[in-house]
Write a structure and sequence with these properties.
By secondary structure, the protein is an alpha+beta fold. The chain is built from four helices and four strands; from the N terminus they run E-H-H-E-H-E-E-H. It starts with 7 loop residues before the first strand and ends with a helix. This is Thioredoxin-like fold domain-containing protein.
Length: 109
């Protein structure tokens, strides 16, 4: 199954200390392993390429408005955000199964 026409973007926040450091409030974001595993699982199951963007590194270039709006509403709990052709298909899930199911449903539509 090859779906080259679909653009899948995953917006993440690489793991970093929380507001009180690693000891107080715990780290925030996803680990490199979580990100790589999720990207590989989505690509393997769907045949689509996944572009990964770290929202902590956008600098002058801002993430898409949808990502900004979701993060304004939900905070970092919104991450990772998976978008297909400018439509959010998954918000805040790090396990691949529900994300892959949402993507496959979108591909079948």
């Amino acid at each position: 199954m090859e779906n080259i026409a679909w653009t899948i973007k995953m917006f993440i926040l690489k793991r970093q200390p929380g507001p009180g450091g690693y000891t107080c409030c715990g780290p925030i974001g996803q680990t490199s392993e979580q990100i790589q595993d999720l990207q590989a699982a989505i690509e393997s199951a769907t045949g689509c390429q996944v572009e990964v963007y770290n929202v902590g590194r956008f600098g002058a270039e801002q993430p898409p408005r949808m990502v900004v709006d979701l993060m304004s509403t939900l905070g970092i709990k919104a991450l990772p955000i998976v978008i297909m052709n400018d439509e959010a298909v998954s918000i805040g899930k790090v396990t691949p199964e529900p994300i892959i199911a949402a993507i496959k449903a979108k591909l079948a539509a």
